[in-house]
Amino acid sequence: MAQKIVAGNWKMNLSLSEGVKLVNGIESKIDSTDVRIIVFTPSLFAHPISQLNKKDTEVGVQNFNQNESGAFTGEVSLNQVKSIGVSIGLIGHSERRLYYNEDNSILKSKVDAAINNDFEFIFCCGEPLEIREGNKEFEYVKNQLEESLFHLTELQIKGSTIAYEPVWAIGTGKTATTEQAEEMHKAIRSWIIERYSEEIAETVSILYGGSCNPKNAEELFACPNVDGGLIGGASLNADDFCAIINSF
Ligand code: PGA
Fold first, then answer.
1. Which of 96, 161, 211 to mutate to test the pocket of ligand 1 (most atoms within 8 A of CB)?
2. 3-class SS at 105?
3. Is the pLDDT of residue 1 over 90?
4. Ligand 1: residues whose CB is within 6 Å?
5. Terminus-to-terminus CA distance in the chain, angstroms?
6. Catalytic site residue 185?
7. How far is CA 14 from CA 11, 46, 94, 123, in A?
8. Which of 36, 82, 239, 247 lies at 20 to 30 Å from 116 by C-alpha?
9. What is d(CA 15, CA 6) in angstroms, rounded to the nearest whole number?
10. How far is the CA of 145 from the centre of ligand 1 (A)?
11. How far apart are CA 58 and CA 120, in angstroms?
12. Angle at 32 between CA 31 and CA 34, to 5 degrees
């Protein structure tokens, strides 16, 4: 059974004090839950936020460099992230792909770096609008997974997490319909079965991301192949984020 996860992606938002207030708010509002809760903070804040007195909320980073160390000004290595006690990060968010030219081969090296460092990740995939309009979304997402993730062994991919985030739904207020989300999530699971096995596919959590909010979360999370969400805008407000978590 795949783990249920609701993760917040703060992107480049909030000051440290606002982030602290947000996490304290989440901690005080959340009902006891089986859902795994993670906030992906800017790297700069990952340490202070992880040090807060909290029981439910884990902290992750939004990005890391695939190299071990060296002359990469402005970048953060996995060793550095791990040295502050953080052990999960996002890989391949569409904004990294689009604005920082992270292509499938760079993302494959980030996946490998994570595996080699025993570092957990959420691998993001999803098609831009023109791909969906050309009815090529399944081909496109399958290719993203094949080129960056499906080289892993059964043991390495077991229990991992994929986030399907259609690019046209991110920050636009346009959510995928439950049918669109479920059919892509079901397809992703079927590709894992094809490449690995049914047993492995059942251990992989597949999250939906893209304008997920307290109004649409319940319906999305009720889909059989949707194991949770990666939340941008609505994760910046403790009430909304907790309402989404409680939608399970
Ligand atoms: P959004 O962002 O919820 O603001 O659409 C989701 C994401 O980019 O992870």
1. 211
2. helix
3. no
4. 9, 165, 170-171, 209-212, 230-234
5. 15
6. no
7. 9, 13, 20, 24
8. 36
9. 22
10. 20
11. 12
12. 120
Active site residue 219: no
Scan for tokens 């005080």, then name that residue.
28
Tell me the pTM.
Answer: 0.97
Give pLDDT, residue 174: 83
Identify the active-site residue in 95, 127, 165, 182. Answer: 165
Catalytic residue among 93, 137, 182, 185: 93
Virtual torsion, Cα 173, 179, 184, 187, nearest 10 deg: 170
Indicate the helix (H) or strand (E) that contains 5.
Answer: strand 5-9
Tokens linked to 241: 């984020």
Average pLDDT for residues 190-215, to the nearest whole number?
Answer: 97
> Residue 100, Cβ neighbours under 10 Å: how many?
10
Q: In whole angstroms, how far apart are CA 56 and each of 50, 92, 121, 162, 232?
A: 11, 25, 18, 21, 19
Question: pLDDT tens digit string along 151-176?
Answer: 999 999 999 999 999 999 988 888 88
Residue of 218, 87, 223, 236 whose CA lies nearest to 164: 223
Kindly tell me if the per-residue pLDDT of 80 is higher than 90: yes
Name the 3-class secondary structure at 6.
strand
Amino acid sitting at position 167: V
pLDDT band at 244 (very low <50, low <70, confident <90, very high): very high
CB proximity list for 214: less than 8 A, separation 6 or greater: 234, 240, 243, 244, 247
Of 194, 206, 115, nearest to 162 by C-alpha is 206
**Residue linked to tokens 């936020």:** 49
Lowest mean pLDDT, pick from 34-43, 121-130, 166-175: 166-175
